[in-house]
Design brief:
154 residues; alpha+beta; ph1033 like fold; two-stranded antiparallel sheet; 6 helices; globular
Length: 154
């Protein structure tokens, strides 16, 4: 059964979407923790960021390939290796949504649950309404059936 994960994007990366990537399909994601967290082919990855204490989803991808070599990822994507984010793990999409900034309400953000092996932890909030950054984390089934699926259909 496929799993669902979040993937945190730095705000600088999100700025690139607003500037020149809006409406493009998310074809690739890179991080040093995908394999370590258990991401594999067929899993869903929700890319998002935090800005002013708000969660924003950018896109959803279904993983088609997980490679550990930037040159191999570039070959699969038909681009140069230096065009890709440098990281140990490179995901290539099987299918994905277009990239767009989608604000997730605080109520929905508070309902997200993370964990594996029976764990069900909420997003850590530093202070009321101020959540921490979400890196590569596994989402529980009850979380993935919420608003994230409605906003990011792939």
């Amino acid at each position: 059964m496929p799993h669902s994960f979040t993937h945190y994007w730095r705000n600088q990366s999100v700025d690139n979407i607003v500037d020149d990537k809006a409406k493009e399909i998310l074809e690739h994601a890179a991080d040093d923790h995908f394999a370590q967290r258990g991401v594999s082919v067929g899993d869903q990855v929700y890319s998002g960021t935090m800005f002013n204490s708000q969660l924003f989803m950018i896109a959803k991808m279904v993983v088609g390939h997980l490679v550990h070599d930037q040159a191999e990822a570039a070959e699969l994507l038909g681009c140069e290796p230096d065009e890709l984010w440098q990281a140990a793990d490179q995901l290539i999409t099987a299918r994905a949504t277009t990239m767009a900034i989608r604000r997730i309400s605080l109520e929905d953000t508070e309902q997200l649950r993370f964990g594996g092996s029976g764990e069900r932890k909420p997003l850590f909030f530093k202070a009321p309404g101020r959540s921490s950054e979400v890196s590569v984390q596994v989402l529980t089934l009850e979380s993935t059936s919420m608003r994230l699926l409605q906003l990011c259909k792939a």
